[in-house]
Structures are given as structure tokens and as C-alpha cells.
Amino acid sequence: MAVDGRLYNCEDPAVWRGIYDKYWTVVEAKSAVKGKASGKLLALDKWFQEELPAAISARSERSLTHAELVKIMEWKLTKGKFRPRLQQLIGSNSEEAVHSSTKKAFSLLPDVQAAITELCKLKGVGPATASAVLVAGAPGEVPFMADESVESIAELRPVEYTAKHYALFLQKILHKTSQLNKVDNQQEWTPHRVEQCLWAWAVANRIQPTLLQEVSLMDAADKETNQKPGKRKATDEKPSKRQKTVQS
Fold it and tell me: How far apart are CA 74 and CA 111, in angstroms?
């Protein structure tokens, strides 16, 4: 089922805030339909969103341990598509390699692309996993490349697990973050928060649309309808050439 792309086009911060307020409700709903793994996603997401960032920020220099990288992959595969081979590859990295690469990657910020490139040197780490690592240590600067979040932006379908595609996603998310902060007095929007809203919107519409029944997107729908045929909204991005990759 195609992801409804209306939320990304919505410019009303109240709508976005309504979706963000439903984030944990959506996580719980998805966690409950995981069968034998019921409840696992909720626990892992709490760890990733709250405990891990606190642990990283408490260190003299931002970095990850081998165990934390392995658990990030477990979180990612539980939240999205399960690829057991990636779990094996992640586990094969040495403690020293994980510490060295993650430390260097965090030091390269705010150059997100350079940090992504550094992290992709680790076995089993592609742009999506690398973005998860960066979010854990710098949620105010980087969005996680969740399939559902990327698919919520029409121009970025289908998802490509390449650095180039992540760069396009990053530009889109930064644009939306800036746009929301300009019209929202609270100015609390970050790339990660915007990406979380897109994920919650896509997942809720897929598994339980009633979770979002209090949130109206008529404003976004009207704007799409009123756009003149043949005209596209100007963007800073250029179309990317399709590439194939096995890691995410």
C-alpha cells in the first residue's frame, strides 16, 4: 500500500504537533501486532529515543560501544524490515573499530555526509543504519532514514539505500524543519522530530488509521488540489540516478 504523502506537504504546525503527540501511541500499536515479539519494539524505541542519547551525551567524547551498535541494529530491524544478515555483519565488527569509527563520525558533524561515509566503513552499516547512529548522538541535527519516512515524500519513492538518496532525504527534512520553525512560535522542530512525525503518520495509516482521527489534514489536501496542473513546487534537490545497494 502506497504511503499517503499529504503530511509532508502540510505547512500547519498544529497538524504536525498533533501527529507528534501520537508518536508513542503509534509505537505501542505497532509493537502490539508483532506476534511473538509483542512489546519488544516499544522497549527498544524507549531505549533508543531516551536512554541511549543520554548515555552518549554523558561521555567526554561522543561514541558508541559495540553492544550499543548491535542494539541499534536490533531496534532498526524491529522497527522496520527484518534483515538477519545485517545483524550478523554488525556483530562481526570489533569493539575498537566501533569506538574509533563512531567517535570520528560524531566529530565530523555538522558535515552529515562525511559522518555517514565514515560510519559506512563498518561492516553491515549502510546510510540508513549510519543515520540511526548519528541520531542517537545528535538528534537535533540528523533524521533517521526510516523507510516509512522516506516514502512519505513523493519525490523520494522508491527508497534507495544510498548516500545520495539519504542526502536528498536530509535536504527535504531540513527544509520542512526550517519551514515549521518559521511559522511555529515554539520553534522546537528538529530533523529527527519531523522524521518521527512522517513515520507515525505512515505507520498509523497502515495499521490503525483511527489513531489519527483527531488530526485533520484537510488543509494539506486542499493545497494539493489547488495546485495548478503541470506545475511542481520548486525544490533544491535534483533527481538522483537510481543505484542499488545491499546494505541499509
Answer: 26
* Contact status, residue 248 vs residue 83, Cβ threshold 8 Å: yes
Shortest CA distance to 138 belongs to which of 78, 63, 248?
Answer: 63
Query: pTM for the complete prediction?
Result: 0.85
Q: ω before 239 within 30° of 0 (cis)?
A: no
| Per-residue pLDDT tens digits for 40-72 | 999 999 999 999 999 999 999 999 999 999 999
Q: Give yes or no for a contact between 136 and 144, defined as CB atoms under 8 angstroms apart.
A: no
**Cα dist. 125→42, 62, 73, 96, 168 in Å?**
23, 18, 9, 16, 19
Nearest-CA neighbor of 168 among 228, 223, 127, 210?
Answer: 127
Identify the pLDDT of residue 161. 93
The type of residue at 154 is A
Going by C-alpha positions, the residue among 31, 60, 9, 22 that lies closest to residue 201 is 22
pLDDT digits (tens, 9 = 90+) for 97-149: 999 999 999 999 999 999 999 999 999 999 999 999 999 999 899 999 999 99
Phi, psi (deg, nearest 5) at residue 19: -70, -45
C-alpha cell at 168: 536528498
DSSP state of 239: P
Q: Quick one: cell of 134?
A: 548519528
> Cα dihedral sign for 238, 242, 244, 248?
positive
Give the containing element (helix H, strand E) for 90.
Answer: helix 84-91
The domain spans of the chain are 6-208
